[in-house]
Amino acid sequence: MKISARNQLMGTVKAVKSGAVMAEVTVDVRAGSVTAAITDASRAQLGLKEGDDVSVIIKATEVMIATQ
């Protein structure tokens, strides 16, 4: 699959929590972990399970950074 997004992290699925509508997927990446909320239908379509190698693609327009 080719994609134009530049904010991509390779990782391994650490945990999947399915709900009635949404699923929470936690992915271990080099710098730590990332958790994404996706629809449970998308989770099922992707067949995500612990141990899967995946790419985390981040839409830069929705990432916020704050100083301390």
Structural overview:
It is a single chain. The chain has one helix at 40-46, and strands at residues 8-18, 22-29, 32-39, 53-57. The radius of gyration is 13 Å and the shape is globular. The model has no long low-confidence stretch (mean pLDDT 89). It has a four-stranded antiparallel beta sheet with strand order 3-2-1-4. The protein is built from one helix and four strands. With 68 residues, it is mostly beta strands. It has a single domain (8-59), classed as RNA polymerase II/Efflux pump adaptor protein, barrel-sandwich hybrid domain (OB fold (Dihydrolipoamide Acetyltransferase, E2P), Beta Barrel), CATH 2.40.50. It is 10% helix and 47% strand. The longest helix is centred in the middle third of the chain and has 7 residues, at 40-46.
Q: Which key phrases capture this entry?
A:
mainly beta, OB fold (Dihydrolipoamide Acetyltransferase, E2P), four-stranded antiparallel β-sheet, 47% strand
Summarize the structure.
The chain is mainly beta and 68 residues long.
How far apart are the termini?
Answer: 38 Å
Radius of gyration: 13 Å
CATH superfamily: RNA polymerase II/Efflux pump adaptor protein, barrel-sandwich hybrid domain
What is the CATH level 1 assignment?
Answer: Mainly Beta
**Which structural class should the secondary elements be placed in?**
mainly beta
Question: How does CATH name the architecture?
Answer: Beta Barrel
SSE pattern, N- to C-terminal: EEEHE
Total strands? 4
* Biggest sheet layout: 4 strands, antiparallel
